[in-house]
């Protein structure tokens, strides 16, 4: 590890206590505090993934995820948001030289959010493109200078291979679309962004196919091994870092609590209780195993890249996901169902050879995976021509012995429930329809009530009074979400509580505060009731998509 890397990681570790202290304020404000951003800048974190020729640190790949992991030990939302803005600099190294000079010649780094999934359209015109569309989850856009996004270029014919490009624009060109109304990770500010017939010069785009093939124009300038990292491997291995750091922090904080917590019945300090020691040892072993597996993947991918040997598709998949292996899936399901009230799996119940979720779950429960007569009847009703119901499609009628079927109102092929494990389709709209059919099977807590008041006032004007209101209503969750509409800034304040009277009282006071500041509050729709069927415990998720 270089001296620059050691110094930066030490500075990140020193920030952890302050990150924890600012966590609640960040969630309430719906953005990362300015003090945190200033400290990251002073530490050099934003230059970690900038080429040396532009004054950056150009750190070795295995160091970069550790920056986010350490941040995650202080605040997962901060690590997630700032992590994107730090490592998205990697993408600009693939753009033409003119683009690189534009984004890096000022302060020496960018803070550019951007969802990787393509949307909208780009129409070629003289000197560039006219782009329109809306893109989701622009995490950190409230702190951005530029915004990255992907869009297909039109005009290549109906059956032509999509010509996907990666573009960037100044954040001032974007409309920030309000819609990030969440109960946690609010500080990430993961709003959508939209463009309407925006002109983008030719040099502010790069072909995604060239990035994947490592033939993008920027690589003629940036020739170090970092820039030859496979793009998806680079992003996916880094993206899990905040969660690993968060898990480590939770374990450490719980360990500290157990040092002084005394059992109500036993009178024993919980750190000395054998049962707690066993639980904590098991958790610690899991976290250490996860950390070792992840760090081994980081080192393996980096060593292959430095050597110049290409990663095979199998090696890339092994570094990112659980393989289609019945034993591995069964072990994962068993671990999750023992630790959580409910486990939901999505995907892997289709007709192809790699759709092995049903047989893997059966393996986990030590039962047979059998042809379910009711499922067969459902498929027959979907395929009027019985010849279409071949052996491959009949795979979708299999379920473990003793399973209860989950209705699929969209495409008929059912999912199933076995004890606390629910197996559903991977297609989002089908999964959602199936989930709506099982809600009544879940043990519910009291409903979560919600009210939203919006106002055209700057979030900074609301911050102090909102904090005072939160202190008076500690049983009402309050979140502030800034927006930009019709060329005006404002914020939406979301109140949540399980007590209707307290919620209404807090909303009435908030209405008065807004009016006292000279604003005219608008209540979004009516009182929304959000069912919270998983309130009785933490849910686990296993995903096995082909």
Descriptive terms for the model:
alpha+beta, 5-stranded mixed beta sheet, disordered C terminus, Molybdenum Cofactor Biosythetic Enzyme, Chain A, Alpha-Beta Plaits, Butyryl-Coa Dehydrogenase, subunit A, domain 1, 546 residues, 3 domains, globular, 19 strands
Q: Quick one: CATH superfamily of the largest domain? A: Acyl-CoA dehydrogenase/oxidase, N-terminal domain
**The CATH architecture of the largest domain:** Orthogonal Bundle
- The neighbouring-strand order within the major sheet is 11-12-13-8-19
Low-confidence stretches: 525-546
Q: How many discrete domains?
A: 3
Helix content: 40-55%
Sheet of most strands = 5 strands, mixed
In round numbers, the mean pLDDT is: 88
Question: Overall 3D geometry?
Answer: globular
Beta-strand content bin = 15-25%
What is the quaternary state of this protein? single chain
Kindly report how far apart the N and C termini lie. 37 Å
Q: What is the CATH first-level class name of the largest domain?
A: Mainly Alpha
CATH fold naming of the largest domain: Butyryl-Coa Dehydrogenase, subunit A, domain 1
Let me know the number of strands.
19
